[in-house]
Specification:
This protein is mainly beta. The chain has one helix and 23 strands.
Length: 308
Amino acid sequence: TIMDEAPEDSAAYSYEAPFTVYSLAWSVRQSLTTPEPPSTSGPLRLAIGSFVEDFTNTMQVIELKDAALVSSLSGEAVPEGGVSSVWSLMPPPPPAPQRCSVLACSCEVEHPYPPTKLQWLPSADTNLPDLLASCGDHLRIWEVDCGAGKIESKGVLRTATQSKFCAPLTSMDWSEIDVTTIATSSIDTTVTVWNLDTQQAKARLVAHEKEVYDIRFMKDSATVFGTCGADGSVRVFDLRNLNSSNVIYEAPQGRPLMRMDCNKCDEHLLATAPLDSNEVIIIDTRRPNGPVTTLSVRIHTLPTKHAP
């Protein structure tokens, strides 16, 4: 669901996917404007991935589109005065000619296994390729062309191994400082840092004693990143010196830590969420082994994300 923050007519837009949605990524690419009908990209464009217990899964790109255009393409009538997937959160404005918008799928592609995470190229520059990354069995790079309605594979990045089986990837993070760098985490206890220009690994290390569940680059850094995992620890690594790492937090009784995120305003603050917990733990890297505070919510936490 997307909240449109228009000052006079705020609305919520919903999209019902034909599958269970497992992963989601919000594009930061600048909006593109074209002649009638209006086209919106960037802030109102998302990628979603399916969860199907089978090899063949699906990845879709959905956008906010003009309802009349969607109706003409689908052959369905647009309800008079609006569409069922849009509802006002503010008092209705005076009657006036309105163009309704709906979330609709622009393009889709089959994806091997459920994508555990999706992430758009972290740049608003429209001169760069419109790239999307996914991870599951391997790290995959896609180029999206919503105008042509297609998503094309631009590369599959595989770690060198003698085994014919691959260790599933649990998460990844695309560096905002150096957009040629992506780091991935895996259930085989390793972290791999990739160079997208060469599509080769520039670093691979054993990061934890058990599965690594999440990874994030620290604020304003292309070399320092944090990880969390099944051994109950949060660790910080620096690509300039991979011979050591800092263990900045260890959960009581080694409780697995499933997700983490770095604060975009303060490079010293991290958040992490334990397995089957209703808590979010806030950590200061300058004060190892002790949380700054613990936030409690009413339901179990899994996604953990700081405001941008």
